Every structure is written in C-alpha cells, then in structure tokens.
C-alpha cells in the first residue's frame, strides 16, 4: 500500500471557488469513475472536434467554442518517478478511472519511424557509424558514446512534440490527459548525464538554449504525481524487470540514479509546484490507484483566482478568444512550434555530421523503394493527379 509523503509541496484544499473573469467556470474537483457514476447522467457536451483531419481556424472558432467541451476532468496530469517504478501501469490505470486519455512515455520512435511505416534503425548496418540511430537501448549500453548528447536533445524534442499532441487533444475534445513524464522534467536526465560525464558542457549549453526557446510556448500541467522509490529499490526493480540493455548496460549506475533522484526532488518538483498541484507517494511496494484518486478528488484547482497567483496561471485565460488562440496554435501550427528548435550551433562537434557520411546515409535510405514517393503516396497512386484524402491544412481561416 502506498503512503503519501506529506511535504510542503503537497497541498490539499477545501472545495469551492472558480476562475475569475473567465468564460469558463469548471467544477471544483477532478472526479473518479465512482463519483461520476454516483451523480447520474451528465448534460450532453458538444461532440469531440476531429482535429486530426480538420482545421480549427478563426471562422470556425466563432461557432465552435473551446470551453463548451470542458468539465471538471479537463486537466493535464503528469506521472513522474524514477526508472522502473511502475509509471506506465499506474498512469494507464489512473487514466481509465478518470476517463482521461493515456499518453505512454515518449520515445525515439517519433524520430525513427517514418510516416510510411519504415523504421530507420533497419539501415544502421549499412550507413556510417556517426549517422546511425541512437535510442534508449544504445544509451544504456554505451552512455559515453558520441551520440549520447544528441540522443538526449532528441528525447526532449520527442517529449515536447507529445505534449503538444496532448494539449491539442484536451482543447479539441475536452477530455483530460495523463502523461508519463513531460518536457518540463526532461532536464533531470541531461543533468544526471552531465554529472556522470556522459555528455559535454557544449551539449548542456545547446540543450538549455533550445529549452529556453521552446518551453514557454506550452501550458504547464494542472497536477504532477511523483511515485517515489529509494535508489536501492530502483536497482532491485531494474533487475526484476530484466531488460537486457538495462542489466548489461553501463548507464544506470547508482551514482546516475542518485543524481536523477536529486534533480527530481531538489529542482524539478520544487519548480513545478509553483504552478501545479503536487502529490508525492512512496511507491516502494506499489500502491492503490483508488487511494490516489481519492486524494485527487480532494484537490480544488479553481481556488487560485488572483491575477498575480502563479498557481494554475496558464489555465486562467480571461476570454474565449484566448482559448481559441491557444487551440489554433496547437492544432494547426505544431510545425511552427517544432521549428523553434532550429537554432544553428556549430561549436559542438558531437552535433555535427560529416558531409560525406551524411550523403552516404541519405543515399542508402532514399534508394529504398518505400522512399521513392512523397509522403502520403505510393506506387499504387501512379498516374493519379489528385489524392482522395489530403493532409490537414497547416494554414486555415
């Protein structure tokens, strides 16, 4: 049974209150399945907007208001914790109980699995070493590899991309989301890698420059749940789940895991608690999701009404048009946000690929038959002037 660690970061609040000066008045608390069922049928909400295939522009915003789909569970929850603590199972179970969408932890698939379904890792044996893919398996086995720094930067980009997808889903459907880790906590890995000399000072400089240029465009979570486990227990859990690359690898040493814990507790949790509610649990022996749901139901997210109050500030938008603006950015202009990562840095050798090696890589990949056609097309579309299904517009009215 998990026990809650009561610290100055964990705060329970009485029910009541609402967002001042906002067209949206959310009910006071997130509700679990049992509480929702006890209230009986709810008033119908507008159907989810098909954001994957349709554009949400200014004209549509006049008739499709964002907050009309919101209810008390329209929140962003993030589950954090050390390696092998059990975040995935917990987050999936929590999302099901709360009626939210679960986003498993972001990984390098977003970079390596192309829209045509081809995994770029299949080409590694045929391309120069410095141009090969590098994911969590490679990092665990070779944490001092030249590509380790680039890997961590790409992981931040992956978490950032997934977080935009989560915000897009919430704003277009009203359904809350539960994520495993987020771009806000990603820096703990960079700091632990730097402390163990897995990455250079140059990599750290580039990472924080990219982070500073991108992180402010997101909306911080409503609630962070940290599953705590002592480092010795973490090592036992890693052995128990018996993943070869973790057991035989050189990355997950006790000093590395200890530094992760330090970064979590002394930097990330203290910082995020200035905006989000925070619940911390001792998860050494596992825990009961129902207990966590009951604790969440006691939280009042709408008590922070003062304009200067930093808590929930990102979610106190005063007008419906402000909600529409946020929704349009995440729904239609994700490409703009991702382009914020295009900051040229030529002073870090680990991030520079030799031109000849890059040419050899591209030649091998694009000579593959599945890369002979533009995205969305195949040999079956030969001779067609138009496609029946076209991608969603990135620019719309």
From TrEMBL:
Q: Check the record and name the InterPro entries matching this protein.
A: Deoxyribonucleoside_kinase (IPR050566), DNK_dom (IPR031314), NDUFA10 (IPR015828), P-loop_NTPase (IPR027417)
UniProt xrefs under SUPFAM superfamilies: P-loop containing nucleoside triphosphate hydrolases
Segments spanning the bilayer are: none
> What biological-process terms (Gene Ontology) are attached?
mitochondrial electron transport, NADH to ubiquinone
Keyword set includes Transit peptide: yes
Q: Which cofactor does it need?
A: FAD
Q: Which Pfam families match?
A: dNK (PF01712)
Residue intervals of the Deoxynucleoside kinase domain: 77-311
The answer to whether the entry has keyword Lyase is no
Question: Which terms in the GO cellular component ontology are assigned?
Answer: mitochondrial matrix
- Record's keyword terms, sorted: Electron transport, FAD, Flavoprotein, Mitochondrion, Respiratory chain, Transit peptide, Transport
Q: Where in the cell is it found?
A: Mitochondrion matrix
Q: Which family does it belong to?
A: Belongs to the complex I NDUFA10 subunit family.
This chain's function reads: Accessory subunit of the mitochondrial membrane respiratory chain NADH dehydrogenase (Complex I), that is believed not to be involved in catalysis. Complex I functions in the transfer of electrons from NADH to the respiratory chain. The immediate electron acceptor for the enzyme is believed to be ubiquinone.
Q: What name does the UniProt record give this protein?
A: NADH dehydrogenase [ubiquinone] 1 alpha subcomplex subunit 10, mitochondrial
Recorded source organism is Vanessa tameamea
Q: What is the lineage of its organism?
A: Eukaryota, Metazoa, Ecdysozoa, Arthropoda, Hexapoda
């Amino acid at each position: 049974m998990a026990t809650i660690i009561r610290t100055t970061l964990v705060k329970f609040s009485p029910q009541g209150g609402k967002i001042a000066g906002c067209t949206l008045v959310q009910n006071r608390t997130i509700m679990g399945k049992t509480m929702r069922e006890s209230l009986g049928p709810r008033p119908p909400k507008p159907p989810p907007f098909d954001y994957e295939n349709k554009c949400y522009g200014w004209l549509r915003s006049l008739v499709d208001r964002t907050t009309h789909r919101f209810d008390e569970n329209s929140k962003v929850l993030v589950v954090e914790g050390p390696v092998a603590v059990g975040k995935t199972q917990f987050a999936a179970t929590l999302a099901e109980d709360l009626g939210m969408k679960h986003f498993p932890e972001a990984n390098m698939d977003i970079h390596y699995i192309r829209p045509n379904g081809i995994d770029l890792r299949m080409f590694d044996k045929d391309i120069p070493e410095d141009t090969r893919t590098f994911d969590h398996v490679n990092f665990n086995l070779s944490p001092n590899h030249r590509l380790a720094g680039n890997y961590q930067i790409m992981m931040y980009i992956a978490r950032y991309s997934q977080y935009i997808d989560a915000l897009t889903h919430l704003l277009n459907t009203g359904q809350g989301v539960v994520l495993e880790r987020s771009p806000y906590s990603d820096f703990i890995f960079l700091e632990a890698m730097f402390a163990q000399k897995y990455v250079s000072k140059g990599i750290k400089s580039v990472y924080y420059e990219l982070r500073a240029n991108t992180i402010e465009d997101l909306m911080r979570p409503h609630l962070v749940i940290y599953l705590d486990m002592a480092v010795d227990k973490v090592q036992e859990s890693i052995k128990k789940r018996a993943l070869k690359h973790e057991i035989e690898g050189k990355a997950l040493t006790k000093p590395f895991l200890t530094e992760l814990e330090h970064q979590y507790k002394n930097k990330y949790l203290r910082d995020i608690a200035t905006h989000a509610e925070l619940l911390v649990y001792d998860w050494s022996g596992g825990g009961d999701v129902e207990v966590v749901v009951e604790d969440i139901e006691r939280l009042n997210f709408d008590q922070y009404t003062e304009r200067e109050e930093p808590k929930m500030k990102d979610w106190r938008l005063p007008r419906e048009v402000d909600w529409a603006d946020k929704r349009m950015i995440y729904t239609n202009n994700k490409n703009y946000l991702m382009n914020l990562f295009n900051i040229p840095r030529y002073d870090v050798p680990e991030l520079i690929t030799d031109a000849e090696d890059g040419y050899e890589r591209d030649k091998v990949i694009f000579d593959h038959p599945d890369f002979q056609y533009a995205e969305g097309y195949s040999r079956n579309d030969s001779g067609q002037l138009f496609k029946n299904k076209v991608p969603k517009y990135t620019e719309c009215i």
